[in-house]
Structure formats: structure tokens, C-alpha cells
Amino acid sequence: MKHSFLDQYSDRDSPLHRLDPRSKLVATLAFIIAVVLTPVDSWPAYGMYLVLLAVLIVLSRVPPLYILRRSLVIVPFVLLVAVLIPFFKGGEVAGSYNIGMWHISVSQSGLQIFWNILARAWLSIISLSILAATTRFASLLEGLERLRFPRVLVMLLSFMYRYIFILTDEVMRMKQARDSRSFGGKWRWQIKTVGNMVGTLFLRSYERGERVYAAMVARGFDGHSRTLERLRFGRRDALFAAGLSLALVAINLFNLLY
Amino acid sequence: MEELITVKNLSFSYPDGQQALIDVNLAIYRGESLALIGPNGAGKSTLLLHLNGILRSNGAVSLLGSPIDESNLKWARSRVGLVFQNPDDQLFSPTVFDDVAFGPINMGLSDGQVRQAVTRALGLVGMSGYEKRSPHHLSFGEKKRIALATVLSMSPEILVIDEPTSNLDPRGKWSFIGVLERMAGTKIIVTHDLELVGALCRRVVILDQGRVVADGGTGDILADKRLLAAHGLAPDGASLKLKRRG
């Protein structure tokens, strides 16, 4: 089965694509930290973050709609976490309602926090989408490794990237095999079938793990992952990381004066 | 002829008690290409995993005269290159380059040597220029070739290949056989595919229920229909009759 790329557009060419992954990783992390630390009520700062991201998207030559679509994936999760805040946060009441025997009130500051969490999450996820769309997954892993990210975690991510679609295929095939022989039935029966499928998938993955390990051992793997040094952190990379950090500082300073 | 691998009185049973190999004796000589055939569950894969020490049974397998044990495992694995049946198990890295470079890096080669080994191995299997691709986006036949390259990059003395033609369509199969044919050196091929055996191998060993039951020239063994039928490698009398009537 054909699947789309996890890191779609990452093999294109643009100033952002050409940067060292380490530079982009650090810049993205700095951006997210700045966004998270920006005070709740400084909306102009958030606006400027968005402008900054827009500039980066233009530079990356990745279709803005693609980034937008990917970034919206996060919204349901954030809503789930944040939706109750306006109801429980004390303070000036923005509105209150009587529903049956319950009295519900929504506070002004609660609403503000709610919008704020949504904005922060959205900005962060856009920056991550830009990172993913401008960096090949393999170089991202290399960058993480050179930044002294724990090797075991890098290997874990690498296996995940390699096997996620193979497992997806496995699930699809199992589903097709089930559907070609199943004609509905009671829900308890169906749940049992799904349970068996999950068990089978686990066993198959476990056995595949053993085979993959055998293939690694057969080529001299002894528990230490080694890689070649292929990245070059140049002047442009330093310039990008420094420039972006300065922009973030400027935004916050402006905010302070404002 | 020089003996590369000597298997002497090798018996092996899995932890669950299943006896996989019983008193196997086998000598593999330099430069030969040998087919190891047998029905499913005959113990072929178990024997194959012994050849580079992934499974070990107290010194029953010797490589170039020295028994394979803990102390020389790394050396043994760089001399005996094992290609597994399913390329999705063999290729586990995010890019083709990383996978083909995996063995040479573990052998401790320098950066330049690793790069050279990768280029050479990809060239040998006709896949130059695929370095940056992700294995997931390759066809099955391409994955098979890359899987072979991941082992060739270590320049092994002996190639051990498990089911090289399984799941390939005829075109893919014959082009892969062509790649193997051009490969110099000692080859051990584990397979059910008798066409492949006829095209590539001079010597055939039949394994059934954990024992070596035949060892001889390819022509003799493939011509012996009764022997093949007795070990589930050719249709027996009853099913042949059915076929003629149909």
C-alpha cells in the first residue's frame, strides 16, 4: 500500500531546507519557549509571532495551506484540555446561565486563558510543522543525535519512522481479512474479534522485532549505535539561529515597553 | 579445496523443546555455490543462523578452522554475510545509505571507507543513486537488492541468502538471479525454488526434519524425482495422477 510521506515537502529546496537541522531544531525550541513564556495578555506579541512564522513559511516555499492544515490537527486536543477552564477559573464573571438545577458561570480571565492556550498551542505546532516540512526525517534524527539527544531515543524514533507504515499495512491486511469473512454479528463478538486482532498485531510486531534484531546483530551490531558525521554547521546556520533568537527577544522587549 | 565452514555433529533444540537440528554435518568449500533446500520447518533457517553465530551450539560450527564462539563473533559476522528473507526486517534505517553503511560502521571502518563501501555495494546490485531514498518508498524487488547490498558492503567471504526469490514476480526473480550470478565468491542459498537452484548452484544439500538427507551435484539431485518427492520438494505419485486426469 502507498502512504504519503511523514515529512512531505522536506526534499524540496529553499534557504530553510538548506540549513543544518541543528540550527532549525534549536530555533524551533527557542521559539516554543518564547511563546510559552509570553504573558497571557500581550496579544500584540502573539500577533508578531504569527508574522514571524508567516515570513518563515514564505522563505520555505512550502504551500501555506499545507502548513495550516497540519497545524489544525492539534486543535481538538487543546480544546479537550482547555474547554473547562473558563468555567472553573474565578474572577470577573463574563456570563452566567441556569441549566436545570445547575448554575454555571463563565469568568473573564478564564476565557482569556482559554484563548491563550489555544493560541500558544497553535503557534507552537505551526513552528513544528515548518520544521518537519523543511527537514528530512533522517537529518532531523542526525541533528538530534549531534545535539546529544539520548541515542536510545533517537533509535526509537528512527524505528518508529521506519516501521509505522509497515504496521499500518499489517493492520489494513488484517482488517481486510476480517471484513471478507465477517458479516456483522453481536457487538460483544465484534469486540472480541478486535481484541484478538490487537493481540495478533502485538505478537507479530514482537516477532518482527526479533527478526530485525537478528538482522542488526548479523551485521555486527553490539548495542552501540554509531553514525557518520555528515552535518556541517556553517555561518548561515549560526546566522539563522542568532537572527531568530534576536527577533524573539525583540518581540518580548517591544511587549515590555508597550 | 579449502574448507570455509565446517559444521560438525550440530544438534540444536529451541527453548520450547522443539528439536530443530539433529547431528548435522556439512562442509562448505571456497568458491562454491551451494543450495540448501528442504520443506517448511526442515530446520534450514536454524542452520543458517548458526553459520554466523547468531545461534551457537558449543563450537559445532567452525569458520576457516576456528570454532565460532563469543570471542570471535564480530569477525565471524563480518566474514559471513547473512541476507534475511524479508527485506523489511533487514532494512531498518531511515535511508538506504544508513542501512548499507550499518555493517561497515559497526566494523569500525573510517568515514571515507564506509562511503566507498556503500557506493561499491549499491553499484554491485545495480542500485547506485538510491542512497537518500527511504526504504519504505521502494518496490519489493528494489528492497531485495538493497538488502543484499547491506551485506555486500561488509565484503563478506561467504554470502548466505535466505529465500532470495520468494515473493518476487518472474521478471524480478530472474533479474535478481542475474545479480547473484554476477556475484563472485562463496554462496549458500536457502530456498524452495528449484528453478533458482538449477540456474545458480552446483551442489545441493537437502535438509528434512532437522537432518541432512542428501548432499550431491545439482544435476543428480534435481533429476531424482523420487528423492525430491519423498521430502516434499516435488509432487508425489498421488497428486501427479490427479494432475494428469485434470
Short description:
The complex is a heterodimer of chains A (258) and B (246). Chain A is mainly alpha-helical and 258 residues long.
Explain this structure.
The complex is a heterodimer of chains A (258) and B (246). Chain A contains eleven helices and two strands; from the N terminus they run ααααααββααααα. With 258 residues, chain A is mainly α. Chain A has two domains: 170 residues, no CATH class; 78 residues. A two-stranded antiparallel ribbon of chain A has the order 1-2. In chain A, α5 runs antiparallel to α7. Chain B is built from eleven helices and ten strands. In chain B, the strands form two sheets. A six-stranded mixed beta sheet of chain B has the order 6-7-8-3-9-10, sandwiched between helices. In chain B, strands 2-1-4-5 form a four-stranded antiparallel beta sheet, with helices on one face. In chain B, β1 and β2 form a beta hairpin. The chains are: A mainly alpha (258), B alpha/beta (246). Chains A and B meet through α8, α9 and α10 of A and α2, α3, α4 and α5 of B.
